[in-house]
Amino acid sequence: MNSIDLNQALTTLGSILEDQGLKFELVAIGGGALLLLGTIIRPTNDLDIVALVDERNLISARPLPPPLLKAIDDVGKAFKLPSHWINSAPADLWESGLPTGFQQRLERIDYKGLILYCASRFDQICFKLYASVDQGSDSKHYHDLKLLYPTSEELNVAATWCKTQDVSEPFKQCLDDLLTLMEG
Q: In terms of Cα–Cα distance, which of 93, 96, 76 is closest to 84?
């Protein structure tokens, strides 16, 4: 999906939810969120949901509520999108701890019965650095990270957060290697 496709699908999803008297608030990270905010232009296969918002509190996105899943499925079929075009695969990040101040930096986009909060640039640096360590410098995550033009200070803060997600020595070594590559 490109930005136009994703926006059309989300607009349709929001209208369907509103017509059903439903309202959901989702928190998105990753390439889909970057695409919606205009940070990247590469197409994406999905929109990653890290959390839901319930009365201003972030709660687990796993599992997504059945009425929301039904509407997502209906829109996906109508637009011929992949079956998990909206998914909660990154919900583990919510469970293991998001970067400090994450919720205060969210950027809101309204789609009638759907309110989407996209992770900020800084938080995306954290997530993309973490994913880059896991998938390497040839990955889309590393490319996205470079497009965010992180400063050395931002990378250092992001690296500190990444170390809370994986405390293993091999991860720390890969993280250090990636940071060296980023500085080069």
A: 76
